[in-house]
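lol ok so funny story. i was supposed to be doing the assay writeup but got distracted and ended up predicting the structure for this chain instead. priorities right. anyway since i did it might as well share w the group, maybe its usefull for someone
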Amino acid sequence: MDSTATASLASLWDEVSGTQPDPDLWVVIATLGAALAVVVPHPLWRISRNAITIAHEGGHGLVALLTGRTLTGIRLHSDTSGLTVSRGKPHGIGMILTAAAGYTAPPLLGLGGASLLGSGRITLLLWLATALLLTMLVMIRNAYGALTMIVTGGLFVLVSWLAGPQVQAAFAYAVVWFLLIGGVRPAFELQAKRARGGAGDSDADQLSRLTHVPAGLWFFLFHAVSLCSLIGGGRWLLEM
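and the output, tada:
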């Protein structure tokens, strides 16, 4: 029985870590169009932005843990805002990296996903994303956030376990395009809101207080990361 279990685990690992055929170019282009369709029009963006918030707050939480802080909870709100709370020193490199991780997380996740898809590892991408979502669900501390995570994580589970290879490929490419394109817009929206006198306690403002570097330079970093990720990730996705 032990040998059977070992063989099954080895087979599962080979399936997850192995490569899958690239989808047709029309699928890549169609998923790019689908991502643009849910990011560019404002009515759809108000809904789809919830997924970017998941990546944003997940970035805060992951970096908090990696830098030795204690993650106490994550909240996702219906207005697409979120809050990640961690305990630790209120200053220093750990706090700076944690604060900087929010707006950079979605495009960097998209870039990492594009790298996996560029090497044909569609299944590995889906399983990693599912694992991250399920792990994040444990840290959610409000009902709306839990519902959002259950729906999003459930969708990934269904596609990963039940869908055929073509559907999995299309879904994976759509998700990565969405992270790359959707990761560009929030920093511009925040900058515009600050110009109107709002969002005085944004991530950029917190970083400015922590580092004594002007908030405008932190916005430059956010824009540089998101745009470079879009360009680099897009090239990987379109190279067939």
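The CA atoms of residues 51 and 128 lie 16 Å apart. DSSP finds ten helices and two strands in the chain.
back to the writeup now i swear
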